[in-house]
Amino acid sequence: MKVLNESIHLKLEEKVNLQDLKIYYMDNDGGNPMVSTVHPEVYKTLSKVLHYFKDTYGIVPEKVSIPKMHRSFEIWSKVLVSSGLRPITVEMTGRVGEANLWLEILKWFIPG
User: Fold this and answer.
1) Residue 20 in contact with residue 57, Cβ under 8 Å?
2) Which keywords annotate this record (predicted)?
3) Strands 24-25, 62-63: pairing kind
4) Residue in 57, 46, 5 with CA at minimum distance from that of residue 24
């Protein structure tokens, strides 16, 4: 902890000029077929937030595409498994109970 105390001096009490912010965003994960698409309401809300920063502070948000972001779920799930933390089936339920993984996979392939 001493190393952190000496090298990091956060200035949390100082005001931030929001006009100095740079905003980068992604509106999807790059197309992983095993991940649900972004809900239209999320797109709508993201658009509102981006327009707010542009109209209020003159910030032009920049859309980015991070290479291999479509593999983020795979990376996350492997880290989760190797860390010894909660299983993915618990995370899928928002940590309320446990999902039946095979049933969820079956639902993925059967529309409706």
Assistant:
1) no
2) Hydrolase
3) parallel
4) 46
- Residue 50 and residue 62: Cα distance in Å, rounded? 9
pLDDT in tens, 6-61: 667 788 888 989 999 999 999 888 877 777 788 899 999 999 999 999 999 999 99
DSSP one-letter string for 33-59: TTSPPPPHHHHHHHHHHHHHHHHHH--
What is the per-residue burial (b if ≥16 Cβ within 10 Å, else e) of 81-108? eeeeeeebeeeeeeeeeebeeeeeeeee
Determine which helix (DSSP H) or strand (DSSP E) holds 72, and give its type and residue range.
helix 72-83
Q: What's the predicted TM-score (pTM) here? A: 0.59
